Amino acid sequence: MPTAIVVGSGPNGLAAAVTLAKAGVEVTVLEAHETIGGGTRTSELTVPGLLHDHCSAVHPMGVASPFMRGADLTSYGVTWRYPEVDLAHPLDGGRAGVMVQDLEETRALLGADGDAWARLFGPIADSFDDLAQDLMGPIMHVPHHPLHLARFGLRALLPASTVARRWQTDEARALYAGAAAHAFFPLHRPTSSAIGTMLLAVGHRFGWPVPEGGSAKITDALAAIVLEHGGRLETGVRVRSLDDLPPTDVVILDLAPAGVVEVAGDRLPRRVRRAYERYRHGPGAFKLDLAVQGGIPWTNEHARRAGTVHLGGRFEEIAEAEIDIQRGRMPARPYVLLAQQYLADPTRSAGDVHPVWAYAHVPTGYDGDASEAIIAQIERFAPGTRERIVAQATTSTSAWEDYNPNYVGGDIVTGANDARQVLFRPRLALDPYATGIPGVFICSAATPPGAGVHGMGGANAAASALRHLR
């Protein structure tokens, strides 16, 4: 029986292990921390009984991913819960841009811009199952569905600011800006529309759900599949060099490119090592977990029912804030991504005290405390929130890197989403998962299709490893 070692137990590492184990490979997963999961962990971070997700929180790509759907997570304890409103983007004066899974309802909610919204996202949502075969793997391949891919690609290559011109209202433009800002990349730059367009289309196809009991339930399910197929999980094992590993047929590294350089050293071909050393990381995140009595008193009613809330005001404000963080400046009003998972999953709350998950985009390596800036953005659209906060916990950019070395400088998406890296991460190669060392592969979020709890980087890397074994 062939053997494999997977270094790192984030969702991509576990997806690689699942894929290999199901193919009859004897797999061992090594994790440096005492608990598995990478960014997909859940703990009581503020007060007893409140469940807070450490990093990943809302999972449109988790229900859309071909790997996750094929893994049948529901049979291993994952129960998806859906909020009444998938996404709200409050504006001053009590207004908001609002998205729900139902496209026709969203069309009505967006009023004058509803038809233009539906014309963009309807066809992409309808064809997403076909598109996923092309979008969730290496860019350099023979397309399975060239017409669908071309239609999406022509839009994805555009700046988000160009795409946003199709809408006239602040509500629709801001709603799009908040989704596009998930890329941690200036909205006037090419390809800055790609991630937001995909997330919104996926939202209309699958919704933006959360797993009951926290994101760690996804980790638990993937681990259970590995164990069921004879794999092993070992925690508290930090791999500092490939030479530390016992003999094995395949090694898959759930590491950022810098981590691969660290453990592989001179065994990497020179051209690959240079490419990994040139790999660019993006801005950071500063996370604030809150315990809030009675929940957040949003002025807009839709925001009170939304699983995800984007804060930052109008399109132009978010665009300016994203430019600031790229230039190393901390905005006075940063873009904030906030999740109210308890609305769909009440098991995360303790009575009338509810967990609120939020982070702000900050410059890479930012060493300040962005807590007040985050609370001020919440207060802007929900006056009175401050008085309801009973406890809070923070994660700075340096704490992110301690928590997961892949998050260099607080970069929780493991790589700058500039045009080159969106198309050719982590390096230009026919097989971006191959490291150039026979039998050694990389599977982290630095590989296609990038960040998100979808497991496709791991599944694709495992597919490359299986080809190597054959």
UniProtKB/TrEMBL annotation:
Pfam families: NAD_binding_8. InterPro entries: FAD/NAD-bd_sf. This is Phytoene dehydrogenase-related protein. It comes from Nocardioides psychrotolerans.
